[in-house]
Amino acid sequence: MKIAVLREQAAGERRVAATPETVRKFIGLGAELAVEAGAGVTASIADAAYADAGATVADRAAVLAGADIILGVQGPDPASIAGAKTGAWLAAGLNPFGERTRVDAYAAAGIEALAMEFMPRITRAQSMDILSSQSNLSGYKAVLDAAAEYGRAFPMMMTAAGTVSAARVFIMGVGVAGLQAIATARRLGAQVSATDVRSATKEQILSLGAKPIFVENVAGIEGEGSGGYATEMSEEYQKAQAELVSGHIAKQDIVITTALIPGRPAPRLISDAQIASMRPGSVIVDLAVEAGGNVEGAVAGEVVERHGVKIVGHRNVPSRLAADTSALFARNLFNFLSAFWDKDKGAPVLDAEIGDAIRLTQGGKVVNPRLLT
Ligand code: NAD
């Protein structure tokens, strides 16, 4: 069983899909590990560290030759893995809806592509969930990015020269990233409030010491759909939410938006008029910018200024903390493959619940129902 670890080629991608820790663990299962030279450099892992852990370090062609499983953070350009053997697994974040042409090419090449972001949200798969592990650190980094752009302090400070007041931080969307953003902003001493369409988050917001801001008494108020994900809200709800948020946003210094709806463009939560109501020097971080954006005027990959308010739209926020996000991503992959390891075969054998959810291609065809409808 040979496992290949690729060096990421996408622009701005600094993460790597295996660490010396997971290399050792895979070897412990009986696998042979081959890591592409330079794969870990942008995540602060030298080739020598992989070699010390027992991997061979080589160029892409050598790493791919005879590999049974190929690990990546993002899906590789199909041409760049042309040497992979038929039937090899490719486990990575494959962005199946956004990169459909690639998925077709993996099928044509006989690769069995496994999209880690399609991991079902069930208890036993929590430790395999790349969306959670990466979002968690994105939520943390969003607060630091906001603090870096903000020309004022977060905590209240009483100094001999006078008092500095605490920053008011509002988190919109309280999933994994939003919860971590609340906790981080609280640690920095800000006054934090938060909102979501899923009423279950109210308790979570309170338990982190923040103030919930929620639409009440509107039809279709429950926004929780399957798998704990949000659903799109009624027009009446959206109007009530916009009114509530307008009054609140005008008093905020920092707003962090994280709202996503699976398979749909991100919901628009902040309008240009609402941005104009904020005081100059305020900062908005749009973590959903690559999914279409929660904030009017946010630009992916840029920090723009509108009405004196900075709107931060960094791409690939997890990659901005590449050492830690790589460590977690690598563990997600190890937890996934090791959970299915068949000792007699010396290889993983997937069950239907997880295998069918994440498998995009098999036997030369696209097989995932989410891509076939
Ligand atoms: P997500 O990234 O899909 O969305 C982020 C947040 O935005 C969600 O809380 C969503 O409700 C919210 N949102 C959507 N539309 C909104 C709107 N119009 N206004 C305000 N907020 C809006 O969410 P996520 O981080 O993936 O988490 C979703 C849920 O899944 C959470 O309850 C999380 O704890 C749960 N989860 C479970 C597992 C598991 O059991 N394996 C793993 C990860 C997450």
TrEMBL record:
It comes from the Bacteria. The transhydrogenation between NADH and NADP is coupled to respiration and ATP hydrolysis and functions as a proton pump across the membrane. Keywords: NAD, NADP, Nucleotide-binding, Translocase. InterPro entries: Ala_DH/PNT_CS2 (IPR008143), AlaDH/PNT_N (IPR007886), AlaDH/PNT_NAD(H)-bd (IPR007698), NAD(P)-bd_dom_sf (IPR036291). This is proton-translocating NAD(P)(+) transhydrogenase. Residues 4-138 form the Alanine dehydrogenase/pyridine nucleotide transhydrogenase N-terminal domain. It is an enzyme of class 7 (translocase). The keyword NADP applies. Pfam families: AlaDh_PNT_C, AlaDh_PNT_N. Belongs to the AlaDH/PNT family. The keyword Transmembrane does not apply.
